[in-house]
Amino acid sequence: MAKIFLLATMFLASSVLTTTAADWNIMNQRTRTRSGLQITLKNYCESWRINVELSNIRDFSVVPSECTSYIGKYMTGTQFKVDSEATIDECTLYLNTLCDLKKDGKDAWIFDIDDTLLSTVPYYKKHDYGGEALNVTGLEEWMGKGKATAMDYSLNLYNDVKKRGIQIILISSRREHLRSATIDNLVDAGFYGWKSLYLRSEEDECKTVQEYKAGVRKELINNGYRIWGILGDQWSSIRGHPAARRTFKLPNSLYYVA
After folding, report:
1. Model confidence at 30, in pLDDT bands (50, 70, 90)?
2. In this structure, which of 80, 168, 176, 238 has its CB flanked by the most CB atoms within 10 Å?
3. CB-facing half-sphere around the CA of 250: CA atoms within 13 A
4. Mean pLDDT throughout 99-105?
């Protein structure tokens, strides 16, 4: 009898746990804020996205499953383009204030590549808009095909910076073995005429992306460059010392790179 009771108890507990796991949803756990405001799933996902952009939410490996549809709609929709173009407008306004450019070949502007110049959204679309854990091998295979599309508003800024006689420096967390594919993809998408392209070497593998990019900036400054600005989509592209005179961040809620 005791054995039967134990088996029945184990079956019931297993059933409850299975049901709970299958039915779990953030909105079943939290329908109000701490102050008592009623919230919807859209409220929750928008708050999550904003806090990612503010760097309050860090080191996430996947987008919450409840929010992948919302994030996908944002990253492919009008609001993302409006937000991104607003960033570019601020870059342009700042450039217009630069009255002390030396034009001696040492004025520089740094661009990140992925989701700054070239969009990886088509890749992430096939992987639940960040809802799947990143497969580095799969992403690099996709990058190797050189099919990433240009982010038009960034291309406009890129060409504007170039026309002003400012040297363009590209610093990417892509690995060195992707150099040829990256160059071909950039040129095909309309980006050319940069001064230097930095990719991660084997020696950089033990560094965080922020450490690696800050190290490149230190090298540039030691070589006499004046870094007037940086445009990137990750905080790791613009944080750290030495810093640029101004930094600008494009929105990206698909992934986090430290």
Report:
1. low
2. 238
3. 29
4. 92
Distance, CA of 69 to CA of 128 (rounded, Å): 8
- Closest C-alpha among 248, 243, 212 to residue 86: 248
**Secondary structure of the chain: what % helix, strand, coil (to 5)?**
50, 15, 35
- Nearest-angstrom CA–CA distance, 238 and 232: 7
* Statement: the pTM of the whole predicted model exceeds 0.70: yes
Integer Cα distance of 129 and 75 in angstroms: 9
User: How far out from the chain centre does Cα 141 lie?
Assistant: 19
Q: Would you call 70 exposed, middle or buried from its count of C-beta atoms within 10 A (0-12, 13-18, 19+)?
A: buried
Cβ proximity of 248 and 93 under 8 Å: no
Cross-strand bridge partners of residue 77: none
